[in-house]
What we know:
One of its GO terms (molecular function) is oxidoreductase activity. By secondary structure, the chain is of the alpha/beta class.
Amino acid sequence: xxxxxxxxxxxxxxxxxxxxxxxxxxxxxxxxxxxxxxxxxxxxxxxxxxxxxxxxxxxxxxxxxxxxxxxxxxxxxxxxxxxxxxxxxxxxxxxxxxxxxxxxxxxxxxxxxxxxxxxxxxxxxxxxxxxxxxxxxxxxxxxxxxxxxxxxxxxxxxxxxxxxxxxxxxxxxxxxxxxxxxxxxxxxxxxxxxxxxxxxxxxxxxxxxxxxxxxxxxxxxxxxxxxxxxxxxxxxxxxxxxxxxxxxxxxxxxxxxxxxxxxxxxxxxxxxxxxxxxxxxxxxxxxxxxxxxxxxxxxxxxxxxxxxxxxxxxxxx
Length: 317
């Protein structure tokens, strides 16, 4: 099979297309003929070398959609022939065939394409549980930092559906701001959080960016406000960022991180099935900027690095 391999961490030139052995499903695993692959922010962070612990030869990619073609021991054979979304771990997805644990499968409903499934499958699920982690309730003022990607877009739509009184976003251009308004955002700020604002303070901030400017957004929390960090596409925050919380001790502001790994499997899968069904009904929007062949994965990453992606880039086989 063909796969995209990281031979050198850093810029996208270190990614190459190679022949690789097709995987064989082990116990409680299935083999999937891949139709679509989501290009995620974490893929770019790993490829850049921001997160250590990976060796050259890594096949990036964590989420795919396709058809189950074989199953390993202990798996119900009725999975064979079914269309599924699958999480394959932090690596392995940029390939024509993958294996995934049966617990990491979600059936793709009729009316939702494989491309749309990978636009929603991970992003919408993280957004759903990140808002829950922030104890979001109707009437809250919400700010989504870094809202132009698939995770940010899903967070905006879910906050709107959940009855947020304000859904402000940060983004890098007026055009992106216009598109986010069409998806329900009420106010558009620049990357530093400046610009028009319906609120000087926010009850919930979902931060996908991290990086050096994160302390500026702690200052935007209302008393009892909650900032949840769900990504770090701009790198790690300053080592002393928590001093902003200590210096405003009496405001009872909180900072937390969130990873889907902490959600029980059954809860995660139930939520994803409901979110994919919402996408099939048209209640959630799978925003796909571009569909590219697997062999052009490096170009997809160049677009990610340039910050020109709105929604998701999807690779197809």
